[in-house]
């Protein structure tokens, strides 16, 4: 049996970097593990890997008969399609506990922090394994991405302390400046196919039998969407129909204004009203202070479908 570590479908930087950093740690303590991925890299993730000299993890979608560590989620919906035919060895995550189960005991590191790579940094400390300079660099970037340069309500003191420690190892003088570089890469949406934008950071959630798709695009200025917003809305409707989803939401997050414009297509015309007590105007809503899908979007929706 070969052991792999893989993140969620449509992987973000935390999933990709988490797989690389976790695989290095496991191999360092004598347990062979191969870093893998379930999808293509986002422009931000490619920027991170290029900056620190990494190749993308192995693209692999089938894990039947293999041992699997899961990073950055614990949901069947986001896992490999044949995860039930694999041996689940462990979960390393920073989200709510999902519905993955195992037939054997497994290793679990789940912490209420802003990024999986913060948890992985704790694992390096626990095992007393030195973090290489280049891995420290990509881990720092993943934390800055997931915490929106420390602005997200998911950001904790642990995330900040981990970035400080990783910056020293990676010899990065200004982590926030590097974070802005990353978000400028995210903001370059011109010329990108609409479906690629909608699915760039997209997750499906099973909420009591209802399939809810939630995407997020984080940029430094929402004006980049002015000319394509109608196309984005049209594609959300197509995506809803294609996947037999109850609702599809797309967060257009302005990290400078610290809020999100929500585009919404749903079977429930009152969904936004129920979740955030705001009226939807032509399927668009401004959610002041909302930066986190994990903490500010998923929980109120789950209460509706409970």
Please provide a written account of the structure.
With 306 residues, this protein is of the alpha/beta class. It folds into 2 domains: 3-184, inorganic pyrophosphatase (n-terminal core) (Alpha-Beta Complex); 194-305, Diaminopimelate Epimerase, Chain A, domain 1. It is built from 11 helices and 11 strands. The chain has helices at 13-28, 43-52, 116-127, 133-146, 157-170, 175-187, 194-198, 229-242, 271-276, 293-296, 298-305; strands spanning 3-6, 34-37, 58-59, 67-71, 87-93, 107-110, 202-207, 210-219, 247-254, 259-266, 284-288. The strands form 2 sheets. It has a 6-stranded parallel sheet with strand order 3-2-1-4-5-6. A 5-stranded mixed sheet has the order 7-8-9-10-11. Helix 1 runs antiparallel to helix 4 and helix 4 (133-146) runs antiparallel to helix 5. The N and C termini lie far apart (39 Å). The mean pLDDT is 95.
């Amino acid at each position: 049996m070969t052991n792999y570590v893989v993140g969620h479908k449509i992987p973000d930087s935390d999933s990709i970097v988490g797989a690389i950093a976790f695989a290095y740690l496991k191999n360092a303590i004598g347990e062979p593990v191969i870093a893998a991925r379930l999808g293509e890299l986002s422009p931000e993730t490619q920027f991170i890997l290029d900056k620190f000299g990494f190749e993308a993890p192995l693209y692999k979608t089938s894990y039947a008969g293999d041992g699997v560590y899961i990073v950055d989620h614990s949901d069947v919906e986001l896992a490999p399609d044949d995860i039930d035919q694999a041996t689940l060895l462990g979960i390393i995550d920073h989200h709510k506990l999902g519905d993955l189960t195992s037939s054997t005991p497994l290793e679990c590191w789940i912490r209420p922090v802003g990024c999986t790579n913060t948890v992985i940094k704790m694992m390096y400390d626990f095992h007393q394994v030195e973090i290489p300079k280049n891995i420290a660099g990509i881990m720092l970037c993943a934390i800055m991405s997931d915490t929106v340069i420390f602005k997200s309500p998911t950001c904790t003191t642990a995330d900040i302390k981990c970035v400080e420690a990783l910056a020293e190892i990676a010899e990065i003088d200004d982590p926030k400046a590097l974070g802005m570089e990353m978000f400028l890469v995210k903001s370059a949406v011109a010329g990108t196919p609409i479906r690629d934008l909608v699915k760039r950071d997209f997750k499906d959630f099973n909420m009591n039998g209802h399939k809810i798709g939630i995407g997020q695009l984080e940029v430094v200025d929402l004006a980049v969407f002015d000319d394509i917003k109608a196309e984005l809305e049209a594609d959300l409707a197509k995506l809803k129909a294609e996947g037999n989803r109850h609702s599809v939401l797309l967060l257009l997050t302005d990290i400078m204004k610290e809020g999100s414009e929500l585009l919404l297509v749903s079977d429930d015309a009152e969904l936004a009203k129920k979740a955030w007590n705001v009226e939807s105007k032509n399927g668009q809503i401004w959610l002041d202070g909302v930066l986190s899908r994990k903490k500010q979007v998923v929980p109120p929706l789950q209460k509706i479908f409970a």
